[in-house]
Specification:
This protein has 164 residues and is mostly helical. Strands 1-2 form a two-stranded antiparallel sheet.
Length: 164
Amino acid sequence: MPKHLLRPQGDYPSAGLIRRFAAIFYDFLLCVALLMVVTFIYKLILMGFYGEAQLKQMSDAGALDGDPLLSTLLFFSLFAFFAKFWTHNGQTLGMQVWGVRIQNADGTAISLWQAMLRFLIAIASWLPLGLGYLWVLWDKDKRSWHDIYSDSRVIQLPKNIHKK
């Protein structure tokens, strides 16, 4: 599958930590909404199978706590959200607002494999008190752990990108 070039092309600087965190926060809000919708649809489907009364009894008894199927659906929903945006145009909605983009060094969109690596390593980057993200402060190319492991970079696009 040929890689597609992202537009605009150019030699743009790496995105700084504040801009990255702003995009992360924006996307966090969108992800919370996504998880709420997926959970709601899942509960509606369960209600269709079990009925409202039995589902309420199961819930009251704690039988639905820690549901592995729901957890799996939520995990894959989040991955699908990020993978679609990252592999299509290199930007989630939060990244579009804050003018940053994920791309390969040659300006092409990242692959699904790279998106999976980014997603998993980004989660792991939070575990040691966010050190994987703070790594941007020490890396000479301003790369986080998930940038390094997925062999991609986060760039800052110019502000006048949409003006003609």
